[in-house]
Design a protein that fits this description.
Elements (H helix, E strand, L loop, with lengths): L1 H7 L3 H133 L3
Amino acid sequence: MLTILQQLGVDASFFWQFGIFLVLWFALSKIFFGPFHALIRQRHERMVEDREAAEKLVAQAEQKLEEYRRMIAAAKDRAKRESDAILESAKAEENKILGDARDRAKQITQDALRELEQQRSRLQAELEAQVETLASQVAAKVIGGGR
């Protein structure tokens, strides 16, 4: 084995260099690599926690959005029902007003017809009463010579 080491050019300084390397490795691991590795691990844990928190917030936001959509749909349904009820009430009121107007117009027409009939009857009675007088006057003028 010693011959192999000599052929490779390894002498006692190699072991000293290897020892110094190991000492430096352990020292740097404790001083530099350990804290750096801990920092990377903490960042990774924080990123995982933040991602989970973000996913929870997204889920809550989607839940709220769905809740708002349901509330909007319910409000639209309520508004539609109220609108339909108002329209139906307005149509009923319109029908009532038109019915009252038709009844009033019919009543006015009937009153006018009755009044015309009364006037016709009154005029006919007056004319019948005056016919005798006019006939006598006409006959008297015709017979009397036009005076």
